[in-house]
Design a protein that fits this description.
Elements lengths: L1 E7 L7 H7 L1 E4 L4 H6 L1 H6 L3 H21 L3 H29 L3 E8 L2 H15 L19 H21 L4
Antiparallel strand pairs: 1-2, 1-3
Helix pairs in contact: 4-5
Length: about 170
């Protein structure tokens, strides 16, 4: 079983479909990408503060090694250790970066992989969320002066359903 935290952006609004598309799941566990690519992965992920901390730690350890007169093999070992530490802390660094940007952790979910966890979360979350966009109607509402609203909502739900089906379909 894998565990994930679910995060929602600071500006919550729009239809349930829009909100569902903006949700981010962050998995627990070791990140090989971060361990292998280190600062480059942090840079590409936009985790600027985490990258700054990584660079500061690299500069400090390099200065300590230079002052101690360590050989080149020690630089390699220290940077490998630094990357492994970043790999273990990658999930927490991502959560921290999202929190600094105003994102809120709204749930924790587990499953037999990311797709299963997403499905479990959305099965419970989507029905419990009301649309917050003025003028949108819930399914089954009778159309008034803006008769296309219900059909647009139904079309949006169908598109989300198709995306989820294609995402969770068994791959052969």
């Amino acid at each position: 079983m894998s565990a994930y935290t679910v995060h929602e952006p600071p500006q919550v609004g729009g239809s349930r479909i829009d909100r569902a598309e903006s949700i981010v799941l962050i998995g627990e566990g070791f990140s090989w990408r971060t361990a292998i690519f280190g600062p480059f992965y942090l840079l590409v992920g936009g985790q600027w503060m985490a990258l700054a901390i990584y660079v500061a730690a690299a500069i400090v350890t390099s200065a300590i090694l230079a002052a101690a007169g360590a050989g080149n093999q020690w630089y390699t070992v220290v940077f490998l250790v630094l990357n492994v530490i970043a790999g273990f802390e990658a999930s927490e660094l991502k959560r921290w970066s999202l929190g600094r940007a105003g994102w809120q952790e709204i749930a924790t979910v587990s499953g037999h992989g990311r797709e299963d966890a997403e499905r479990r979360f959305f099965d419970l979350w989507l029905p419990s969320i009301a649309d917050v966009t003025p003028g949108e109607r819930h399914l089954g509402a009778s159309p008034g002066a803006d008769g296309d609203t219900t059909s647009r909502v139904e079309a949006s739900i169908r598109r989300l359903s198709e995306r989820l089906r294609s995402k969770f379909a068994l791959k052969s």
